[in-house]
């Protein structure tokens, strides 16, 4: 007898979770959350999940209550005798802390992995981890999806005559090179030096962007300082146009103001993180169908390789 499949969502990803469930051909299960006066909260499943394949959908961007809510839902599902607990984490928070950059600091991505393992997760489905090595922090399967599946068709639809792919920093050069190979394009790299987190002291472009239509590829946009500074610098160096393709739209601080006042023609993101503000320069592509397809493949023990373009 097939195990029942049930979808639930935390507060942070309710809209996306509904889209994923609908794309799969189901709907979100009944759940609720009680908030106490001191700030604590208690999630609850309001239907039986005994023996079910339970998919818990929640991105873990700040505040940390989003991560805690997911962990508590996992614990509740385990105690309610779910057969398998699959955490669907479109945006994996704390992924930038995947190694020690200086002495006496945590490796927070590993800590989060340990918490998910301890809580009782059996599998994770996520998208565009900041570092591929994070998959090795887990002792169970990780289905790591790539937004290139969605972004490549969009880039091709632009029909840019002088396309060139750019990486906003040295660390993203591998990702940019993957896009460039598939699109038969050249690559340029932005070299930047930070005095401290989110503050760039200097930047230079390695490569020629004159008369080129530049697309900057990155896994996330946070304060948008790097992207906007890079776009302005490339226009100064003779680029025809500059666009950005970023999977996760965090948009903290003055990000929207920087984007609106920059030389970026547009920035394309996915809906792994819900947007709080709107901007004419920001376009969004849904990941719901891709996640639903991956979930279907996982349940039927089929390969998910067909979901990858590059």
Describe this structure in words.
This protein is of the alpha/beta class and 310 residues long. The protein folds into 2 domains: 5-146 and 288-307, Rossmann fold (3-Layer(aba) Sandwich); 148-285, Rossmann fold (3-Layer(aba) Sandwich), CATH 3.40.50.2020. 29% of the residues lie in helices and 28% in strands. The protein has helices at 14-24, 65-79, 108-119, 148-158, 173-183, 225-236, 255-260, 288-299; strands at 5-9, 31-35, 41-45, 53-57, 84-89, 123-127, 142-145, 163-167, 186-196, 199-206, 213-221, 241-249, 266-270, 282-285. The strands form 3 sheets. Strands 10-9-8-11-12-13-14 form a 7-stranded mixed sheet, sandwiched between helices. Strands 1-4-5-6-7 form a 5-stranded parallel sheet, with helices on both faces. Strand 11 (213-221), helix 6 (225-236) and strand 12 (241-249) form a beta-alpha-beta unit. Helix 1 crosses helix 8 (288-299). The longest helix has 15 residues, at 65-79. It is globular and about 60 Å long. The two termini are 37 Å apart.
């Amino acid at each position: 007898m097939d195990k029942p499949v049930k979808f639930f969502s935390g507060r942070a990803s309710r809209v996306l979770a509904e889209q994923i469930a609908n794309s799969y051909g189901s709907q979100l299960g009944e759940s609720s959350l009680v908030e106490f006066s001191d700030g604590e909260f208690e999630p609850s499943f309001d239907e039986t999940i005994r023996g079910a394949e339970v998919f818990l959908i929640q991105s873990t961007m700040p505040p940390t209550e989003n991560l805690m809510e997911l962990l508590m839902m996992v614990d509740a599902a385990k105690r309610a005798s779910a057969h398998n607990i699959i955490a669907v984490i479109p945006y994996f928070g704390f992924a930038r802390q995947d190694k020690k950059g200086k002495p006496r600091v945590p490796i927070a991505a590993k800590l989060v992995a340990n918490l998910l393992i301890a809580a009782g997760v059996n599998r994770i489905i996520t998208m565009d981890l900041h570092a591929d090595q994070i998959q090795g922090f887990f002792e169970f399967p990780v289905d790591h999806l790539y937004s290139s599946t969605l972004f490549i068709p969009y880039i091709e639809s632009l029909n840019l005559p002088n396309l060139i792919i750019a990486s906003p920093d040295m660390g993203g050069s591998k990702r940019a090179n993957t896009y460039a190979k598939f699109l038969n394009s050249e690559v340029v790299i932005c070299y930047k030096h930070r005095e401290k987190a989110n503050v760039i002291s200097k930047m230079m472009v390695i490569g020629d962007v004159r008369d080129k239509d530049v697309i900057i590829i990155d896994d996330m946009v946070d304060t948008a300082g790097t992207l906007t500074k890079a776009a302005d610098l490339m226009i100064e160096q003779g680029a025809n146009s500059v666009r950005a393709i970023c999977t996760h739209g965090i948009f903290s601080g003055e990000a929207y103001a920087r984007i609106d006042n920059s030389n970026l023609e547009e920035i394309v993101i996915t809906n792994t993180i819900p947007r709080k503000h709107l901007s004419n320069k920001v376009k969004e592509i849904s990941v719901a169908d891709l996640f639903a397809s991956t979930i279907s493949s996982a349940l039927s023990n089929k390969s998910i390789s067909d979901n990858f373009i590059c």
